[in-house]
User: Fold this.
Amino acid sequence: MIHFPRGEQPAKGWFVGPWNSGVPAAVGYAVAGIDEPHFHARMFELYLVARGRATALVEGQRLILEAGSVLVVEPGEVHTFLDSSPDYYHFVVQTPVVAGDKHAAPGTPAADRPLDRSVDSRQAV
Assistant:
């Protein structure tokens, strides 16, 4: 069993993944939409909005996300968050978990290197 009590959390992080369990997906969260255009070559991301509102940009299309919204981003789709309300909170599920599969979007300053923060440093894959 893995239990995550409510409490002080950083703005973004990971609850569970292959680095600390046998769950074949990573489950994380964010309390703000972070503007970092990127894509994953092999991973899907499922965003589950628990509260607040945000504007996501996926493949150039602006999407309004509100409590109860679900957004599925497929491999290869460039995505980011443009803004979010102060009370924003989402869960994110990545599957399959692939180490180093976060890549900066073409045309961004970091586009020449992978963004190795697909999952946090607890990652064991």
Remarks:
- Residues 118-125 have pLDDT under 50 and may be disordered.
